[in-house]
Structure formats: C-alpha cells, structure tokens
Amino acid sequence: MSKTIDELTARFTEFMGHAPEGVWSAPGRVNLIGEHTDYNEGFVLPFAIDRRTRAAVGLRTDGVIRVTSTFDHTAVEFPLAGLEAARTAGEIVGWSAYPLGVAWALGQHGADLSSVTGVDILIDSTVPVGAGLSSSAAIESSVALALNDLWNLDFTREKLAKVGQLAENEVVGAPTGIMDQSASLLGAADAAVFLDCRSLEAQVVPLGLAKAGLSILVMDTRVSHSHATGGYSERRAACEAGAAAMGTSSLRDVSVGDLDRARELLDDVTFRRVRHVVTENQRVLDTVRVLGAEGPLAIGALLDASHVSMRDDFEISIPELDLAVETARDNGAIGARMTGGGFGGAAIALVPHALVPAVEAAVVAAFAAAGYGEPVTFTVTPSQGAQRMGDSAVG
Ligand code: ADP
Ligand code: MG
Hints:
Order of helices and strands: HEEEEEHHEHHHEEHEHHHHHEEHEE
Number of helices: 13
CATH topology of the largest domain: Ribosomal Protein S5, domain 2
Bound molecules: adenosine-5'-diphosphate, magnesium ion
Strand content: 15-25%
CATH architecture of the largest domain: 2-Layer Sandwich
Mean pLDDT: 95
C-alpha cells in the first residue's frame, strides 16, 4: 500500500512508463442505520469513512484501458470500444471487473467509448476487503470520478453512483443497490448521506460527532457472511410476499400505523419480517430528525432498537454480533447495532472518545470468554466523499 500521493505517482510512473494526470480517491462506507430497507424502496443513512481507495490515472493515445493494482500486480487491458463485446463474452473477470466495469457503464450512460482517450489506471486502497466497508464501491467511485474528469463527461455524482452500481450489477455480477456508491460519492466530513432508495434523492445530514465527543467503533466479528446467500434471498422473498399480501408493490408503502392490519393478514414469520422493515424505515426518519433537533447523543436508543429488530424480527444477527453490541453498551456505548446484511460481519457502536479503548478491550475479552474467534475493532471517522486529490486533500 502506497503511503503518499508522491509514492503512488512514482509507482504509476515506474509501472506505466509515463506520469499520471492525477490521483482521485474515494472512501468506503459504514451504514449508520437502515438495514434491509434499500430493496424495499425505503431509507438508509450511510456515511463515507476515512479509509480510501486511490486511483492514479494517466492518458493513453490508443483507446486502450489498462488497469493494475498494488493489491495484485497483473495488468489487464482491453480496447475501450471492445468492452461491451468482452463483457458479453465473459472475458472481464476478477478485481479488474470493478474499474473496467465502470468504464463500460460510463459508456452505457452516454460516454462515447469509441472517441474518448485511452487510460492507464493504478489502484491502491486502505479499505479492507470483505469487512463490510465496501471496498468495491470505493474502487468504482474513484475510477468513475477520475474518468468523468478526464473525459470531460460532466456527469453528476448521483449519475456516477448509478454508473458504479451498473458496473457492479452487470460486469462484476453482484446484485447490489445504490447505497454504497451514493455514500462514497456524496459523503461529507462529519456527516451521513440520507438516501431515499425509491426516488434516489440524497441529502447530506450533519452528524456532529466531533462536537459531541463521540467516536464510531467498528467491531468486526470476522465471521464470514458468504454462506448466507440463502438467508438473504429468503428475507427478500418474505418482504415481497408481505408487500403483496398488504396490496402494495413494496414495503415502502406500509407504515407503522398499518402494522395491526399486517398482523391479521400475515403469518407470524412474514409479519415479523415486515415489521422490521417498516419500523426500520421509521427509525431512519427518526434518526435524521433527532440528529437535527438534539444531536448524536440522542440517537442511541434508535440504534439499539434497530439491533433488537434485526435480532428478533428479521433474525439476521448471530451470537457474536449480539455479544459485541451488548458488551459495547455495557461498557459505555450510547448505542450499538449490527450493520450490513447480517449472518456475520460487523457491528458498530457510538462511543464517547475517552471510552473507546475500554470498550475495545471489553469486546475482545468477552469474545475470548465466550470461545469466539478474536474480533477486530477500529474507529471510523465520517469523511469527505470522492475527490480529485491535491496538496490539501484527505488521504
Ligand atoms: P466489500 O465491498 O464488502 O469490501 P466486495 O466483495 O464487494 O467486498 O468487494 C471486494 C473485491 O473488490 C475484492 O475481492 C477485489 O476484487 C476488489 N478489490 C478491493 N480492493 C481492491 C484493490 N485495492 N485492488 C484491486 N481490487 C480490489
Ligand atoms: Mg462490496
């Protein structure tokens, strides 16, 4: 991993044989609240973090895109005009599908790939892979912003988020929503991104963590959720069945006031799945309102309630996540919840700065006492979204 822009520029120059035009960076993300609401056309509240992917990009004259990474030194190249054919033939594989997919998706959104200049791209990242921090969206967003600038496309950041999602869905082949790319492109320092997954309208919401003396602690259980594909699709199916039984196309249209009727119409399991989504949407709205009115010290109960809802109603937590959440709370966190899709992954806690070391130690000790594998804990700072890097830029 290169430590400075100069170092990355030097690596690029050595590997590519010419200097880059510049370096663009984009962050990973953490979801503060709003889980399993995205595919129900509901609300989410993620923020960009201080772990970033940087893309050094230089121009070529031959219409070719060549990508490499400090993570895997093989270089992959295709003519830009041939990306669609390569995609259809299934020739774009592995990590290069993220940056190449973005170039292809820019074409799908109107960039003329037969006339833009070729590019060399070197990727470097401090976003850990597979820890639920969306290293994938960080790559997509850094590359999307770089090519948008270098190709003078003038796409909005909202459109670049759609470009990243299209790359991930159609080239990588992961059926993800637009939350991660929106957080990575639209995030701001000490703020979250309030995203309406139906209209795709996004709003930056100040968090005020610095002033309140609060940190966000990530507690990664290191339990992989990869085995849980069945659980994820079962939850999606239950949401669809619940919406259909309630006479709507999506649970976005069901409100807390409709839950009594839902209880009568639905079997117990479907009802509890529906109740999670409906109350979680309300908790996202409440969190945005409370942040504005009272500040972050007042959102603890909403984070706690979100966890209980995922544990008991949506049933996507695991004992390791429950232990992390309870231990954090018992040791001074003002609120805590599992974050991400569930069945593993990480939990987050809102913790007064001074108590962070004690909470971290308590979580590690509790895992050891329970015979669980050692968790990894670290704080994340809500940070600026994707940007072209200059002298005063963020890492
Ligand atoms: P997450 O987004 O939760 O970290 P994903 O499976 O969605 O996990 O994305 C991880 C993938 O992104 C990796 O397997 C790899 O293909 C790619 N990736 C992440 N960081 C880098 C990097 N620095 N260089 C190249 N590819 C990377
Ligand atoms: Mg990802």
